[in-house]
Amino acid sequence: MGRSSQVLLDIDELANTIREKLEILHPLSDECCIYRVPDRLRQLNHKAYTPRVLSIGPLHHGGKELQAMEEHKNRYLQDFLRLSGVSLEDCIQIFQQCEIRLRNCYAETIQLSSNDFVKMMLLDASFIIMLFLKHCFGDLRNRIRNDRIYNKPWLILDIRFDLILLENQIPFFILEDLFMLSNIPTRLEGVSIVKLVYEFFRDGWDSWVKADVLERHSSFKIEHILDFLRICQQPSELQPHKELRMLVVPSTTELYQAGVKFQLSSSKNVLDIKFKNGILEIPRFRIVDQTEILLRNLQAFEQCHCLDNYVGDYIAMMAMLVNSANDVELLSQNGIIENWLRSNEALAALFREVEKENIVFPDRYCFSAVIEDLNVHCRAPWHKWKANLKQNYFNTPWVGISVVAAAILLFLTVIQTVCSLLQV
């Protein structure tokens, strides 16, 4: 009996311990939109997710290699207060009022005191706003001498790419609230925080950031800057989904050998890939050294937060089409890919690497209909015979004339032989 009672006491003690921990759990918030990059993605290329010079938000706050930028943040806060005409106290009050909402936007508990958290958020938000304003209005840079950021071209480039990292985000609503608190919108008519973000990133990502996002953004909730870049390519209408039986499509070279023609699409949306009447239309995409950073962080955000992984779908599609340097060359010749990397093979390797650990949902893959139609086309022998004849025997006028002449000569020889046999 004594041993049985001891077991019951241990169970009760353990149950009470677990119950206490359950009671202090905070409810999960629908506001959550900023995450740590999953380890399986980070291990593939940790530099693509790690800020170089600038920390934004709490996840990289306090990093030793990022401390040099903290002085610039204080100077930009000073510039913001002078330009906006609002008091520091009013700015702090906005952040205090929505502190809980701001904390709920992060997928992990932020271990900062209330004062430290509000101070960090105010510095980061005012820095971003002033950074965008100085980019869009050169006279602001001219008024403020010795701006150590815009006087160093390499630094602004590093900052631009640090701002698109998933772990380096702050909620978009606080940028809007702080901007609207100031007198800037009334002094600069027609300027919004969305327009400032658009202008800042259009210079670096002109083939990704579409102009119509300014018209469409009101119909979307923008979570943060990285989400804005995703919305830039979010299609107004997704193609009808089919159940994807097998994620396989011939490479660009194999499609060419099967008679598929490649054509530059007039669409600015990279997802607008269409195949009809033997013609594969693909929108232009400019590939630079930092394209991998953009794609990887959009991919990580989708995997952590989104139901429609259309950036991941695009990565999977391009990884299949662009499998070698020859594939890149064919697409470049048609103006589809603008390659700023060191070689065609480097571009093909980029898509192969980004495609690792990519997630595709067979029932929601947005290019399933295109893949099915391409595979049907390539399975028809007639398309390959026709393409082989055209590409190898009629690729130039002189070769074509020679082939026709040879065919006529052969035909006449056969007739002559038949006539000789009939005479005999």
Distance between the termini: 121 Å
Radius of gyration: 29 Å
Q: Please state the overall shape, judged from the principal axes of the Cα atoms.
A: globular
Helix content: 55-70%
Helix and strand pattern:
HHHHHHHHHHHHHHEEEEHHHEHHHH
Assembly annotation: single chain
In order across it, which strands form the biggest sheet? 1-3-2
Unreliable spans are none
Strand content: under 5%
Question: How many strand segments?
Answer: 5
Instruction: Return the average pLDDT rounded to an integer.
Output: 86
If helices are DSSP runs of H or I spanning 4 or more residues, what is the number of helices? Answer: 21
Transmembrane segments: 398-422
InterPro entries: DUF247_pln (IPR004158)
Keywords: Membrane, Transmembrane, Transmembrane helix
Pfam families: DUF247
Key attributes of the depicted protein:
single chain; 424 residues; mainly alpha; three-stranded mixed beta sheet; two-stranded parallel ribbon; 21 helices
Describe what this molecule looks like in 3D.
With 424 residues, the chain is mostly helical. Among the domains are: 158 residues, no CATH class; 130 residues, no CATH class. Helix content is 56%, strand content 4%. It has 21 helices and 5 strands. The chain has a 3-stranded mixed β-sheet, covered by helices on one side. Strands 4-5 form a two-stranded parallel sheet. A hairpin with a 2-residue loop joins strand 2 and strand 3. The chain is globular and about 115 Å long. Keywords: Membrane, Transmembrane, Transmembrane helix. InterPro entries: DUF247_pln.
